[in-house]
């Protein structure tokens, strides 16, 4: 507990900024889906894997012995030091909550087929049910298993946390592949938010550095996840920007050609 009794103020400020930044970064995506009243353009597998990997991420940091030691030290250190020590957990918790809300919006504003209109790229209701069912089943299974390891098998808690971290990293790595494919097929971002990706892509690496400074090499399973997602999200961001610039140029050419053709 002595190591966290006197937290670095600069690191505390950076962690607070990251916490607020994580929340703000998801707002453009939430707002865009609500304004469009459609989640068209979001891959069901992207939403599913993002929710499940987020669940693995929050469970990972909550079961890491280092994190649990920090939580236990809150009884012996000041409120400020306790808050600083738990900011990493809060960051992961906010991230999981925000993506879980994306899943809910995806289901609430699930794109519906229009009678007589052939739209082969639209997801089906079966896929929506799979997203919800698997997400909830995974959450319940991880919760029960984590409780068992914490109270019945504490000696294997580090291994369980590492397993969750590896699982989260693999799922997060796969998460962006179906979304990249969906965006490429549609040739448009639709309900996918470019501002969200602009904030999150560099933010993933800053966040990973913050967690690495807090948890050290032993917490690689927590911060490694965000290095991987940052790289893949960067690919999706570049694709989205290229489509946006293409559409802007096309709209500009059409507006310039309108008067001359009339």
Characteristics:
single chain; 262 residues; mainly alpha
Provide structural commentary:
It holds the Pfam family PQ-loop. It is a multi-pass membrane protein. Helix content is 81%, strand content 0%. The chain has nine helices and no strands. α3 runs antiparallel to α7 (157-186).
Order of helices and strands: HHHHHHHHH
What share of residues are in beta strands?
Answer: under 5%
Tally the helices: 9
Q: Give the averaged pLDDT, no decimals.
A: 86
Model regions low in confidence, pLDDT < 50 over at least 5 residues = none
Write down the Rg: 21 Å
The end-to-end distance, rounded to whole angstroms, is 77 Å
Quick one: biggest sheet?
none
- The amount of helix comes to over 70%
Number of E-state strands = 0
Sum up the overall morphology in one term. globular
The helix/strand class is mainly alpha
Summarize the structure in short.
81% of the residues lie in helices and 0% in strands. It is mainly α and 262 residues long.
Outline the secondary-structure elements.
Layout: H1 2-5, H2 9-36, H3 44-63, H4 65-73, H5 79-108, H6 125-151, H7 157-186, H8 194-215, H9 220-261
Transmembrane segments: 12-29, 41-64, 84-110, 122-151, 157-177, 223-245
Membrane topology: Multi-pass membrane protein
Subcellular location: Membrane
């Amino acid at each position: 507990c002595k190591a966290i009794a006197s937290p670095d103020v600069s690191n505390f400020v950076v962690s607070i900024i990251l916490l607020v930044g994580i929340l703000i970064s998801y707002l453009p995506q939430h707002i865009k889906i609500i304004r469009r009243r459609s989640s068209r353009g979001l891959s069901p597998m992207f939403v599913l894997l993002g929710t499940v990997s987020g669940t693995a991420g929050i469970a990972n940091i909550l079961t890491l012995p280092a994190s649990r030691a920090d939580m236990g030290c809150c009884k012996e250190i000041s409120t400020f030091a306790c808050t600083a020590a738990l900011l990493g957990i809060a960051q992961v918790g906010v991230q999981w909550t925000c993506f879980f809300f994306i899943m809910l919006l995806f289901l609430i504003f699930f794109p519906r087929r229009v009678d007589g209109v052939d739209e082969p790229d639209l997801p089906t209701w079966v896929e929506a049910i799979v997203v919800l069912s698997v997400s909830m089943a995974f959450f319940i299974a991880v919760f029960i298993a984590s409780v068992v390891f914490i109270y019945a098998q504490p000696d294997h808690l580090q291994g369980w946390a590492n397993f969750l971290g590896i699982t989260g990293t693999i799922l997060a790595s796969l998460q962006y592949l179906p979304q990249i494919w969906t965006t490429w097929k549609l040739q448009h971002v639709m309900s996918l938010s470019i501002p969200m990706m602009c904030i999150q892509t560099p933010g993933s690496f800053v966040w990973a550095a913050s967690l690495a400074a807090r948890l050290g090499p032993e917490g690689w399973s927590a911060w490694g996840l965000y290095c991987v997602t940052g790289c893949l999200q960067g690919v999706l961001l570049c694709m989205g920007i290229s489509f946006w610039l293409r559409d802007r140029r096309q709209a500009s050419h059409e507006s310039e050609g309108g008067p001359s053709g009339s």
